[in-house]
Design goal:
Tetracycline Repressor, domain 2; HTH_TetR; DNA-binding; DNA binding; globular; HTH tetR-type domain-containing protein; disordered C terminus; Arc Repressor Mutant, subunit A; TetR_C_Firmicutes; mainly alpha; three-stranded antiparallel β-sheet
Length: 186
């Protein structure tokens, strides 16, 4: 019971810290936001901050990891087409528009790219390539795909995410199909 309570408290603390950071990022440059400021805004102690994070960027990385975990659960079918995987990507990230805008404003979008590459490396065990997928090729292929998704996402966000998730998927999935036949979860 204690572990469940501590886990729930920890989750609430992290959500409060993340929310405080996002609120502050809308008003101030990320470089000028202190841990004390985030802690006070979140209503937690600095010690609570340091129990969960080492540096401010860890808050963003933790949130990105949560985003990719949730996106991964959307993909958790036996087999999913490139189109549907791509549509779900845009559907899910549309819900993160304000977060992405904050990262753009703070010049921290490289964190999205880094987490995207890590996510695709994990996902690669479920990917069936259309070409020879030697380990060397697979690494570069993942970097290529992650970079493409990242750049399209950033461009889409900068343009106000006007296009529908379906329209974005139509534009991207054909290119993706040149590299990935399908994703299969066994």
């Amino acid at each position: 019971m204690t572990n469940k309570y501590n886990s729930e408290q920890n989750k609430i603390t992290k959500e409060s810290i993340f929310g405080a950071l996002m609120t502050l990022m809308e008003k101030k440059d990320f470089k000028n936001i202190s841990i004390t400021e985030v802690s006070q805004k979140a209503g937690v102690s600095r010690m609570a901050f340091y129990r969960n994070y080492s540096i401010m960027e860890d808050i963003i990385i933790d949130h990105l990891d949560d985003i990719f975990k949730e996106y991964s659960t959307l993909l958790n079918n036996k087999e999913i087409s490139n189109y549907e995987m791509t549509r779900l990507y845009f559907y899910y990230f549309r819900q993160q528009q304000k977060f992405i805008e904050n990262l753009l404003q703070s010049k921290l979008t490289h964190l999205i790219l880094e987490r995207s590459v890590e996510f695709l490396n994990i996902l690669s065990t479920a990917i069936t390539c259309t070409m020879d997928c030697s380990p060397e090729f697979e690494k570069y292929n993942i970097d290529f795909i992650a970079g493409g998704f990242f750049n399209v996402l950033i461009s889409w966000c900068k343009n106000g995410m006007i296009e529908s998730d379906e329209k974005m998927a139509e534009m991207v999935h054909a290119r993706l199909s040149n590299h990935i036949a399908r994703i299969s979860f066994i």
